[in-house]
Each structure stands twice: as C-alpha cells, then as structure tokens.
Amino acid sequence: MKEFFGFGGFTRTPEGYFSWQHITFVSLLMLVMIVSAILLGVKYRKKDEKCKNKVLIISAILIDSLELFKIIIFCIRGNDPWAWIYELPLFLCSIQLIAIPLAAFSKGRVRNAALDFVFIFGILGAVMGTYCAGQNYACYPVLSFDNVISGVTHSISGFSSLYIVVSGMQSMKKRNIPITFAILCSFCLAAFTANCIIDYNYMFLVRGDGTPYDIVYNLVGGNPVLYPLSVVALFLLYIAAFYGVYYLITGKRKA
Q1: What is the mean pLDDT of residues 160-173?
Q2: CA-based angle 162:114:158, to the nearest 5?
C-alpha cells in the first residue's frame, strides 16, 4: 500500500505512455464507463427527472469525494499543507468537479446549461485524461494511486456525459450556448490567473506537457500569447462543432 500510494517515492519503473499496460488499463476503465452509462441510461430513460437525477447526484458526490481524498493524500505524501494549490479544479477535465454537481443540484436554465456542458466535455475529458495523459503515464506506474484515481475520476466524467444523453437529460438549446461559452471562458481566465501567480500550467495554457496540446504549442513556436489564445479558441470551436454535429445527427435545432 505504501508503494501504491507513493509514500517515499515509487520504486517501480513507469511502464510508459502508450505502453500495453497503459492502454489495457484505460481501455478497461472506458469499457466499464460505457457499459454502465448505457445500462443505467436505458433503465432510467422513461423515468421522471427526479429519478434520472439520482444517478447524477451519486456521480457528483463520488467524483468530488475522490478528488478531495486525492488532495489530502498528496498533502500528506509531500508533507506540504499547501500542495492543494496545484490541485485546483482548473483543468478542462476537472471543471466537471463543479459542472456535474451543478447539473445535479441546480435548477432551471443553469441546470440545463450545466447538463449540456457535462454532455459536451465529459467524453472529451475522459479520453484526454486517460489515453492522452502522457504527463501521468510517463511519470508514474500504471497501477499507482496517481493514475488509478485520475483514471476513475475521468471515467466518472465520461460516464456522466454518456448517461445524460442516453437517459435523455440533455437540452442542447441554442440559447444555452453563451452560458456554455461563459463557463469555459471563466475557467480559462481563472486558470491563466492562477498560472501567473503560482507558476503552474492549469488548462495547459502555458505548455503541452506531453499531451496533444504540444501540437498547438509547436505550431505557434511556444509563443506566450498565441499559444493560450489558440488553446481557448480550440475549446470554443469544439463547443460550436459539437452543437453542429448534434443538430445534424438529431435533425433538431432547439431554441
């Protein structure tokens, strides 16, 4: 258990990014995520909103509890009570720590916008935080606390996204698009501010750190202005493209 949690450092050599161990582990997580979302989504699809929402409430409590537990472990492991400043929910994936509870516990237009936000970014976050997490799997053994807890929380985000669409909870109304943009831009601004204050890389707005964002970083030559603007522009473009594809597939354009 000491080795699993990394107390005193890991003695095992990391298997490596895109190693068969990495791919196998995250693929199993994705399989559980997809199957459970489909089964529960189909089960509750014809139920009322209160019944459907119970699954999201459990997901919200679970993802935030696991994240809080992770922060506590990191503070104890590093003997640093300020380690939490590097674990703030200011990555694209970790926005779900706020968005899922918002979708589960709020009401009205805010709830609808939060449901759409989780639907739009949950799957993307799950894939980016598992298959594309080069910054984790290149540094830590696959079956370590760091990677297991990260894999599970990202899978909860993906599960919530799939569950929302399978159970029919999404609204995808055009009037909610500005709210979705505002949620994302607010987090990007908060992440950029935090990066300036504590010299960190929230939302990967400073550099790619072994993720696909490195492609953008290299394209703009690491320009400290063009790179973060390009990353934010890609986020907004993704939202617009997601809505466009959704309307194309469903044939519905809700007001």
Answers
A1: 94
A2: 25
